[in-house]
Design a protein that fits this description.
This protein is 18% helix and 26% strand. With 74 residues, the protein is α+β, with helices and mostly antiparallel strands. The chain has one domain. Strands 1-2-3 form a three-stranded antiparallel sheet, with helices on one face. The chain binds zinc ion (ZN). The site of zinc ion has 8 residues, from loops. Zinc ion binds next to loops.
Length: 74
């Protein structure tokens, strides 16, 4: 899929580090603040607390999906 721009593994690690520490996350390519969308997925009742977050850069159209472990706070 050559038309689908992606981040490198290094960039993904950088995004993840910032995202875990604090949002908003700047895009490593163009420094635009990335949009964060939680992905629900209808996983209620599966017995584990897993949340996926979809980070999208509105300028260069790259995106990244992370599994984020939620803390005990709810
Ligand atoms: Zn970007």
């Amino acid at each position: 899929m050559a038309d689908r721009a992606q981040y490198t593994p290094d960039e993904l690690e950088a995004i993840r580090a910032v995202f875990i520490a604090a949002t908003p996350v700047p895009c490593p390519r163009c420094t635009t603040t990335m949009t964060v969308r939680p992905i629900g997925g209808g996983s209620f009742g599966l017995g584990y607390a897993r949340q996926r977050e979809w980070l999208i850069c509105p300028t260069c159209r790259r995106s990244a999906i992370f599994d984020v472990k939620r803390g005990t706070r709810n």
